[in-house]
Amino acid sequence: AGAPVVVVMQGRAPLGVVRRSIAPAVVSMRPRLERWLDAESLALLATVGRLAEAHGARAYAVGGVVRDAWLERARVPRDLDVVVEGDALIVARALAEAVRGTLIEHARFLTASVALHDGRSVDVVTARSERYGGGGSLPRVMPAGIGEDLRRRDFAVNAMAVELASGSFDLLDPLGGRDDVDRRRLRVLHPLSFVEDPTRIFRAARYAARLGFALDAWSARCRALALELAPYGELSPARLVAELELILADAEPASALAGLARAGAFRLLDPRYRATRSGIARLAGVPATLAWAQSQGLAVEGVELIATALTAEAPREFAGAMVRRLGLTGAPLDRVREALERAPALRERLRAAGPTSEAARAVREAGPTALAWLDLTSGAPTRAAVERLLAQVGRARPELGGDAVIALGVAKGPNVARVLGALRDARLDGKIRDRQGEIDYVRGWLQHGEREG
Question: How many domains, in total, are found in the chain?
Fold first, then answer.
């Protein structure tokens, strides 16, 4: 059978060792996929494999579906990612016809999506390689084989594939993804991975939080190098915001945001950023505050609240640069600034005694972002006060509407809003309790208030 090892000598000195190559064992993913995927998704993957083979192509399941199947996480995916060696658009068209799904093609990028009637979708992508022109720029893509496609990916745990033609669903793992999954480890595939695409730093935090993984030491050094080279002029605000929104929508957003701050990732917005203990705590509190705001009917943009948390301790010039790096200008920028400026005064106003209507007016004028920031930076008593005022404002809507006060003699125009506001305040302060009280109030206003106004 031959020697397993050959020692190469020069004279009496050994130069090296040549070992006999051992073919890697073929691992079938079918048992794991059957345990993890529902029957419909498994059949869908098999259908894609058959259709690709019928059109002279080869199809592979890739990405999260393979990683999570090996991890055997208790989560059934709604979206499946498939890479095709060959013409992905032809395969996607055939799949859409076979499952009577809705096809969306992106011919420029050689990709397509097939949406099924039950809410699931399949993204079908041509296997490709990527070439980056500069740090933070979007890559130039070229058709390639599955091996090159896997090597272009962000982390080894996402660089595994399952072939879909044979029915045994054999695993392709040329970069050691299985071992990384078993070790709960995130590992980039080359030293400049984070430099080529700095948004991978955000993805690393998201995966680490959701999966309970951590960057290995080498990848952490690669991340540190990328952050030392910040900022990246070609890294657009839209891409940064998209990554933050993905984090907010993920399973463990608080942990991911805190992890980003501790790693110094927000130096991608401005190299002067430095995380503090209080700043990390505020970022970790953003998801819970957004949930609270939603429960109170307050429309708060998550990225605006993150921007407020990031800039709370920063000098104004530095803060403005960070917020603009997130693409916040005009009204969104004003909301962030007003939140930081108004919250302290509003907190004091809620603590002070006085008419309920005055406190309610302060809450209304503050706006949703400022109220969310107030909640994020205050304790339970302040939250309870805001909730109480919001509830009282909701109950204090006048029974009389605009047409009714006009019918009582109030002239059309700004006086209508003025009277309705006065009715609401009077209800908040307990001066009016019913419809008749509102009518009497309007008549009194017509006799006295109109002349004074």
Answer: 4
Q: Which residue range(s) make up the domain with 92?
A: 30-183
405 by DSSP, 3-state: which?
helix
CB atoms near residue 400 (< 10 Å): 20
Extract the tokens encoding 376: 């994020």
Condensed to tens digits (0 to 9), the pLDDT of residues 45-104 reads 999 999 999 999 999 999 999 999 999 875 667 899 999 999 999 999 999 999 999 999
Nearby residues of 129 by Cβ (< 8 Å), 6 or more positions away: 141, 142, 144, 148, 149, 151, 152
22: which residues sit within 8 A by CB, 6+ positions away? none
* Pairwise CA distance, residues 334 & 336, whole Å: 5
Coil/strand/helix, residue 278 = helix
How many helices (H) and strands (E) the chain has is answered by 22, 13
pLDDT of residue 74: 59
Instruction: Based on the fold, state whether residues 256 and 379 are members of the same structural domain.
Output: no
Residue 106 to residues 38, 112, 125, 245, Cα–Cα distance (Å): 28, 6, 10, 23
Other C-beta atoms lying within 10 Å of the C-beta of residue 416: 16
Residue 259 tokens, joined: 């992890």
204-260 pLDDT, tens per residue? 999 999 999 999 999 999 999 999 999 998 999 999 999 999 999 999 999 999 999
Quick one: how far is CA 251 from the chain centroid?
Answer: 10
Segment 208-211 long-range contacts (CB within 8 Å, at least 24 positions apart): 208/255, 208/256, 208/259, 209/250, 209/251, 209/252, 209/253, 209/255, 209/256, 209/259, 210/250, 210/251, 210/252, 210/256, 211/71, 211/73, 211/184
Residue 105, SS3 per DSSP: strand
Is residue 28 within 8 Å of 132, Cβ to Cβ? Answer: no
Confidence at residue 109, expressed as pLDDT on a 0 to 100 scale? 81
User: How much is the pTM?
Assistant: 0.85
Which backbone phi and psi does 183 adopt, to 5 degrees? Answer: -90, 0
* Residue positions counted in the chain: 453
Q: Is residue 333 part of a domain?
A: yes
* 36 and 152 both lie in a single domain: yes
